[in-house]
Amino acid sequence: MPLSTIAATLLRGFGTTCLIFIITLALAAPLGLVVSFGSMSRFAPLRILTRAFVWIIRGSPLMLQMIIIYYGPGLLWSGTALPRFSATITAFTINYAAYFSEIYRGGIEGVPRGQYEAGLVLGMTKTQIFFKITLLQVVKRILPPMSNEIITLVKDTSLARIIAVREIIMEAYSFMAKGLISPLFYAGVFYLIFNGVLQVIFGKAEKKLAYFR
Amino acid sequence: MAILEVTGLNKSFSGTAVLSDVGFSLEKGESLAIIGSSGSGKTTLLRCLNFLELPDSGKISVAGETVFDSSDRSAVPERELRRRRLHFGLVFQSFNLFPQYTALENVTLAGRLLARENPGYPRRRAELFAEIDENARALLDSVGLISKLGAYPHELSGGQQQRVAIARALALSPDILCFDEPTSALDPELTGEVLRVIRSLASSHTTMVIVTHEMQFAREVSDKVIFIDGGAIVERGAPEDVFGNPRHERTKRFLERYSG
Lengths: 213, 260
Ligand SMILES: Nc1ncnc2c1ncn2[C@@H]1O[C@H](COP(=O)(O)OP(=O)(O)OP(=O)(O)O)[C@@H](O)[C@H]1O
Ligand SMILES: [Mg+2]
Hints:
heterodimer, A: mainly alpha, MetI-like fold, 80% helix, flat, binds adenosine-5'-triphosphate, binds magnesium ion
């Protein structure tokens, strides 16, 4: 087997991996914020419902959620299944939005109420307080847990092969049938590089915000 | 005319009365000390003055302008509420400086944001900001922190942080500056520098309402004293009278406990 074939196949798989990662991040990050507002709502029914939802999503395996989302519609009400890739994105987005929402909530609730009140007595509007005072403190607080979660997301993308989405591990695994194990190691290297880059980016961001406490 | 007039202020939290029929007035340039045991409602009173808490009933006026009146049910627009709020300044027990800003930026931030509402803002921006900046430097100098302009709150001691907080409150030139136990969160050796700043404000006739557990300080610095117990004013008068010759049994007992 020529190395170029292996490389091309792995790169294609890596492309899919990256796509799952980027789309999930782009959707789950804002959705998580909406969910966190729900879980902090003063309207009790909304708060309780949101927290129950978050509890269920965080308390059960992502793999199970993917299986339900992909096979569920067909089995439960003989509907048409989502395409594999869309099912993957849907499951990942819901799952990560739940995790992100808890991180956001922790970050927002962690900013002392006195910060908000100090802004108020200085005649600031709520919007000014949010953008000029609260936001940066929240970002600083959530950066370490977010970077952990995002690195986990990179690795979790490999779960997509459960419903036969051809991400990098699945592509690498396909060479096993031909007696080749090295592609799996190469796949591992892709992950290491990807996460290495992310770690550098997050490290830089954390350093940038280290000037205050 | 009194600069501050509070009448019939009541506030309860879930059925428990925390302020009952509180009323007092303050002349421009005077300082009022509010003393009372823990849980007597002192903080709640200051929070009502600063619109952080909504009184159940009562009236508050500043220099003849009614800024709060529970019998007036018409909604106050946010902009107007913010304007009224600026009659008062509040120095918190726990400073509440903004950690991501330097001492100087803490003092200038609110002023710069308010400047945007100035009609000539976009055009006169540089000029307005320069004024705000200069004023802030002068204030930080007056509280002894000219060498700390660029320091972030975590780089400052508690006493220094509280002095920045005082400068920050003064920057908006409030008519009445309120202090909520400004030295309670400080190590004993740091209280002196903060009390000194407040003393000098008193001698330059800044109108102040000071909640404090420092009885000696209250006695020296105030023109009037109020002793509050269980949310009601029990005794009021000149510091010599309230401290030197308290009339009420409750005041006597309280002062005995605090004259440590
Ligand atoms: N937001 C709130 N909700 C419910 N109860 C409150 C609230 N704020 C204050 N209280 C209660 O009101 C009472 C008065 O509180 P306040 O903080 O005004 O007392 P204080 O005189 O400032 O006491 P301290 O000297 O300990 O600061 C207390 O019993 C307190 O528990
Ligand atoms: Mg208090």
